[in-house]
Amino acid sequence: ILELGCGKGEYTVTLAEKYPENNYIGVDIKGARIWRGARTS
Predict the structure, then answer these.
(1) pLDDT of 9-41, one tens digit each?
(2) Which candidate, 4, 18, 14, places its Cα nearest to that of 33?
(3) Backbone angles phi, psi at 11, to 5 degrees
(4) Is 0.70 topped by the overall pTM?
(5) Distance of CA 33 to the CA centre of its chain
(6) How far apart are CA 20 and CA 35, in angstroms?
(7) What DSSP element (H or E) covers 31?
C-alpha cells in the first residue's frame, strides 16, 4: 500500500498495526517528517 503525502506516517502505522500482512510505503516531500515517523514505527 502506497501513501503519498504521508507526513509522519500516523495513518500508515495504524493500518500496518491492523493489517500486518500487507506491505506499506509512505512518501512525503518533507524528508524530516518521514524520519520522525520511521523512528516511531
Answers:
(1) 888 889 999 999 999 988 888 777 666 666 666
(2) 4
(3) -65, -45
(4) no
(5) 10
(6) 21
(7) helix 31-40
